[in-house]
Write a structure and sequence with these properties.
Low-confidence stretches: 34-53, 95-108
Mean pLDDT: 54
Structural class: mainly beta
Oligomer: single chain
Distance between the termini: 16 Å
Number of helices: 1
Strand content: 25-35%
Radius of gyration: 15 Å
Length: 108
């Protein structure tokens, strides 16, 4: 389980290399780019998916998006998405006005 601060960037990264270009993590990983500067907030959002099947939906195969490199800092958190399932919990800012308040999404 991974919990990241509000406004933290989340990237899906394939194969993590160290500074000397040695492969240290093979496969798909979810990495946060949190630098610790995000504000604390009370609201939280939970995303629960099954990887290997729904990870394709997160990648959006029609977008042709490619991440050339990702810097994993000391404050970053990395989660292996090749396990049976994973849950991503991220703090989010307050709800926008004129939207439903207090809505919940429950895990299946």
């Amino acid at each position: 389980m991974q919990s990241v601060p509000c406004k933290a960037g989340i990237s899906i990264v394939r194969d993590i290399d160290d500074v000397d270009s040695h492969l240290v993590g093979k496969g798909d990983w979810i990495a946060s780019c949190a630098d610790g500067s995000a504000k604390q907030c009370k609201a939280s959002k939970t995303l629960s998916v099954m990887p290997l099947s729904e990870l394709q939906l997160l990648r959006n195969v029609n977008a042709h998006e490619q991440v050339a490199s990702a810097l994993v800092q000391g404050s970053s958190q990395v989660l292996n998405s090749t396990c049976a399932s994973f849950e991503l919990i991220a703090e989010v800012p307050e709800f926008f006005e004129r939207r439903l308040r207090g809505s919940q999404q429950r895990r299946r």
